[in-house]
């Protein structure tokens, strides 16, 4: 019975990993104005389990398996969530059954205790709430909590790749490339509230939390997940409202939308998604034509696409709005030089295609022209002299 149950769990897991892609939408930038990384859509980004940093390391449990190839009952209790040995889950206390598992998009609450593999406690949160699948928490939690039953207690071994990665964390304190042990109990799961019925102030607050999560991910160089968080924030700001909303709240939502689009453009630039970044910049400029960040990033995208003339025009416009911005000055100077070099190369190519006369032929042509001009003057002077003599003879004859 246990073996059959484990087969069902693995089949369920397979279906989750095949369809469980983050709904990644389409910063932060080396831009002096980008204080807190404030700022279209590209769905073809890495799935949740394939993004993120950190060196690939075998977990202690996997090392133990290598040391002893004889499977034990304890080893069989571990579920290799992704099949790479980097994320394993073990049920400590059974829950209410498979039908009680939470769904992606639901708001869940868990009791979480995080420790290093040496037993050092990193943090303990008795009531951690997040939206499942939105990237609000460690990847290890996003991927494993959806496999838990209500009330279930589980032990999770997470490789650094699915935890805090190569950078580690200062708050909570976790060294770089740290594998973690997570003790998790699923306490509740509820459907997310209807955005159309949510009070505008709550929508603004929720969108801001998603944006701030995107900023954290951006600073950690997890650009794909940052785009995901900004995209979710945009969905919240752009949702229609069936409740009364004041003019000030509309402006706050629009301001939040612009910030998310700007940050998204910077993240998309880092991912080399130039068309998506350009669309994000254009969306900002539709709302705020003089937004300097959007103009700067639009200029960078156009330059990367080889549209130097249009890029220079866009950056000049940004510089006119902020003449003291050194970053724009530097980018514009670099671009003007590159554009000049391109024009010089094009002119040389055109001359080669059309032919370039030698200096000798030019001098020969000038000499010929000079002799032709001299003969014309001589002939003209002679004609005038002869005409004068003839006129004198005619006058004398009449007299």
UniProtKB/TrEMBL annotation:
<keyword id="KW-0472">Membrane</keyword>
<dbReference type="InterPro" id="IPR050754">
    <property type="entry name" value="FKBP4/5/8-like"/>
</dbReference>
<dbReference type="InterPro" id="IPR001179">
    <property type="entry name" value="PPIase_FKBP_dom"/>
</dbReference>
<feature type="repeat" description="TPR">
    <location>
        <begin position="292"/>
        <end position="325"/>
    </location>
</feature>
<feature type="domain" description="PPIase FKBP-type">
    <location>
        <begin position="105"/>
        <end position="190"/>
    </location>
</feature>
<dbReference type="GO" id="GO:0043066">
    <property type="term" value="P:negative regulation of apoptotic process"/>
</dbReference>
<dbReference type="GO" id="GO:0012505">
    <property type="term" value="C:endomembrane system"/>
</dbReference>
<feature type="compositionally biased region" description="Basic and acidic residues">
    <location>
        <begin position="52"/>
        <end position="66"/>
    </location>
</feature>
<feature type="region of interest" description="Disordered">
    <location>
        <begin position="35"/>
        <end position="72"/>
    </location>
</feature>
<dbReference type="InterPro" id="IPR019734">
    <property type="entry name" value="TPR_rpt"/>
</dbReference>
<dbReference type="GO" id="GO:0005740">
    <property type="term" value="C:mitochondrial envelope"/>
</dbReference>
<dbReference type="InterPro" id="IPR046357">
    <property type="entry name" value="PPIase_dom_sf"/>
</dbReference>
<dbReference type="GO" id="GO:0005829">
    <property type="term" value="C:cytosol"/>
</dbReference>
<keyword id="KW-0802">TPR repeat</keyword>
<dbReference type="InterPro" id="IPR011990">
    <property type="entry name" value="TPR-like_helical_dom_sf"/>
</dbReference>
<dbReference type="GO" id="GO:0016020">
    <property type="term" value="C:membrane"/>
</dbReference>
<keyword id="KW-0413">Isomerase</keyword>
<feature type="transmembrane region" description="Helical">
    <location>
        <begin position="377"/>
        <end position="397"/>
    </location>
</feature>
<dbReference type="Pfam" id="PF00254">
    <property type="entry name" value="FKBP_C"/>
</dbReference>
<keyword id="KW-0812">Transmembrane</keyword>
<keyword id="KW-0677">Repeat</keyword>
<keyword id="KW-0697">Rotamase</keyword>
<dbReference type="GO" id="GO:0003755">
    <property type="term" value="F:peptidyl-prolyl cis-trans isomerase activity"/>
</dbReference>
<keyword id="KW-1133">Transmembrane helix</keyword>
<dbReference type="Pfam" id="PF00515">
    <property type="entry name" value="TPR_1"/>
</dbReference>
<protein>
    <recommendedName>
        <fullName>peptidylprolyl isomerase</fullName>
        <ecNumber>5.2.1.8</ecNumber>
    </recommendedName>
</protein>
<feature type="compositionally biased region" description="Acidic residues">
    <location>
        <begin position="35"/>
        <end position="47"/>
    </location>
</feature>
<dbReference type="GO" id="GO:0044183">
    <property type="term" value="F:protein folding chaperone"/>
</dbReference>
